[in-house]
User: Fold this.
Amino acid sequence: MSRLKTVCALTLFLSGSVLSSAHAAGTLTIATVNNGDMIVMRQLSSEFEKAHPDIHLNWVTLEENVLRQRVTTDIAMKTGQFDVVTIGNYEVPIWAKQGWLTELKPDAAYDVNDILPSVRDALTSDGKLYALPFYAESIMTYYRKDLFQKAGLTMPADPTYDQIRQFADKITDKSGQVYGICLRGKPGWGENMAYVDSLANTYGAQWFDMSWKPLLTSDAWKKALTWYVSALKEDGPPGATSNGFNENLALFASGHCGIWIDSTVAGGLLFDPKQSQVADKVGFAPAPKGPYGKGPTWLWAWSLAVPVSSHQSADAQTFITWATSKEYVKLVADRKGWVVVPAGTRASTYAVPEYQKAAPFASFVLNAIKTADPNGQTAQPRPYTGAQFVGIPEFQAMGTQVGQTVAATLSGQMTVDQALASAQSSVTRSLRQSGRAR
Amino acid sequence: MALKTKRSTRIAVTLLGWGIALWLFFPIFWMILTGFKSEVEAVSTPPKLVFMPTLSSYAEVFERASYWHFTFNTVIVSVGATVGALLLAIPAAYSMAFMPSKRTRGTLLWMLSTRMLPPVGVLVPIYLLARNTHLLDTRTGLGIVDMLTNLPIIVWMLFTFFREVPAPILEAGRMDGATRWQEMTMVLLPLALPGIASTALLSLILCWNEAFWSLNLTSSNAAPLTAFIASFSSPEGLFFGKLSAASTLAVAPILVFGWISQKQLVRGLTFGAVK
Amino acid sequence: MQAVVEHSPAPGASARKGKGAGFLLLFPAVLILLVWSLVPLGMTLWYSLLNYNLVDPTLHGFAGFSNYWYLLTDPDFLHSLLNTFILVAGVLVISVGGGTLLAVLYDQEFFGRGIARVLVISPFFIMPTVSALLWKNLMLHPIYGVYSAMMRAVGLTPIDWLAQFPLLTVMMIVAWEWLPFAVLILLTAVQSLDSEQKEAARMDGAGPIAQFRHIILPHLGRAISVVVMIETIYLLTIFAEISVTTAGGPGVASTNLAYLIYSRALLQFDVGGGSAGGVVAIIIANIVAVFLVRSVARNLEV
Assistant:
């Protein structure tokens, strides 16, 4: 070790760099994803620094996968590099149970009760709040009104997956590079599996039964996956296996998709003429229903939390309270316009008439999130929670592997049956390795 | 007749030489071009070659991330790591080239084999070591790691250059009473300078482009350009323009530097092949 | 060539005198590399015997060899091993083969040769992450990509490269980065070839192909060894290109060993399993090193 220090001193001397302490007093390091809403937060954070001159903010903005890996490593090894982390409602309860997150008790002015109940519940563990929601999303259907009109179709108020498939067939025009349906195909538990799980839920499929026996080879899974593969193969864009949320957003915004079923957060971007070529042609509907019809529904809340390893917990809490407050929403509206305010977290946002006017999808999204229920009832009772994920630590491993298998069916390397069999065996292995299933 | 063939050959060579060069360079050209398109134009199909250039993507990139901070870190880390590695490698290569023992060959190959393991296999230990020595997210920490990953190749390259220096020249110096230190600094280094220069250039390029350690061992203070790119690789919405602009910014310094030093780089990369 | 004999290192006198000094000069580099490789290696070995999952601290304790068992019985492991070798071999063939031909081409006099050379060498300076993003989004994207537009322009259906030929596509992208490096080194070697030698061969009536086979190729042996050595070192650990373009998929079609370990250790946070993979990779690296010694290093006259 002393050798290391000598060399370190040497390099230090040579490069003329200063050994910068990662934790200068009053400096908060904030780790966040490079999504649009977070970029706005970063731009507006100078206001926070103005109001709190003794707190300086240091930003680490990374792509979702890289961020998740960095934050998890930091927090699990208790390094304390980050004072504020951006995580979702998959992580919050699991990390809270492991004692990694600081319990939050915002004051009365913050008005916790203004946060939509479904979102608040998702960030609460054992009755304690561990993260504040920055924005939240559920799932919905976007479609192109002009293409539907041309084909003489109307989107029903509550579409089914069979109907969606027929519509997609009719509006697909491959020579004109318009593809009837766009869905996530990029492997990853937060990418294609988020969608496939939602699809599976409404087909009555589920991951495990009460004794943690994997159910991936069930009929319901087979039907759901068959729908997914055939829809994307026949009516989907080429390159579907590399399309995640962002790629599909770009495809839809540039006029290449007829129907797109994905997160509600895309609304603000698709209706923004600066970012979308189809801003005046977007229609929206609820997420389609499958044969089972019920089932848990997608809810994701990008939230800000303070790791217990942070050395500046108090300042960090001041910041996250500010970034998720009503005042912040107003600040975004003043500077950037109502259409881009963080959605899905506060009832008060939806009560603002300007927002309802600027965002035609507002009440629709509000309803989707209010009724989103990650604890919804599956066909058979289940020992876990979560709609587009399974709320256990092992799920990142299982979701990553199954996501790859699903992508392999899209590219034609495997049939649906082969894929499900392989998924079943890899999930069984993971469970055995973690000791959950004996 | 002979002259005719010669001319047609020359035309063919010219066409082929330029054709291949343009084909290989095309992706870079296209990246630079796309950086000057608006986001909507960047995804137009078919792709546009003629368009109204705009700086909007660049403006947004600069607004979102402090480019100069990342560049500064990259420069400091790359230069520091290169200099550090040379200081360790020159004596080692000297010793191997001029004072070999039975173990020299084995030592050299062992050094090279340390470079063949996937860094990810030892990430957790290195991460913990860096944390415990407070070197996480410091330029020093990243510099040390970069230096160590490149050290084996640098030793080997220098070794091959040093062996090109005719031993009699060094011997002659020693006859005149030069010490080893003088022998190394006054006789050997000037002779091997082109080799050392291209080794340094290669090391700089490799450090500049190193992506794995720089992403995992830094967060903000010491984050280099590879981390800068990671924040643009798929932002929400249309991103081709911003991605291209950010990529152009990240590679421009080393690309220009490479073009300028290309002759020097080539001159030194002989690995003892010139006799 | 005959100079080799002359340069056989270290005349006896200085070798005898300098044993201690030689060791002293070598010592710092060797020591620091020893620390650098042995300390993490020891820790990796230790972790590979533990139940160690970052996101599940409830799981701990000694695991014996179960991490190895899970790794070696995983069907993905063999796939990834095979992919690693296909990738290394493919890129080596493309870059050495193409590099040799290009080196001869750019050794010829032609108009603007200097600029053409600079253009050819340029991809080597591009970060792996950037070149992967560039190829994935701007070149090969089945809708917006330039290559797809070209195929559409001549009436073909664009190929969905990353889904249909994932490993081949990754190989092409990596080869694009490393071909210039091969050209750089091989061109230097071709240029060092005595023009008198070439002239003499031409006088003897040797055609261009005969010249290439009997004069140029033998001369390049050493330079090719250098390219193979350095590229192998980097190609064994290809990571950024895979992670950006295919994330190892679809399925495991483009997962190499480095990516498999990454996926275990940092996507699934299974440090124990990832470490077991690391140990296996270290063993493989040493096998490759021995192999390189046998075939390549001899050529290098180490």
Observations:
- Residues 212 and 261 of chain B are 26 Å apart (CA to CA).
- Chain B has a mean pLDDT of 86.
- Chain B has one domain: 59-268.
- The two ends of chain B are 37 Å apart (CA to CA).
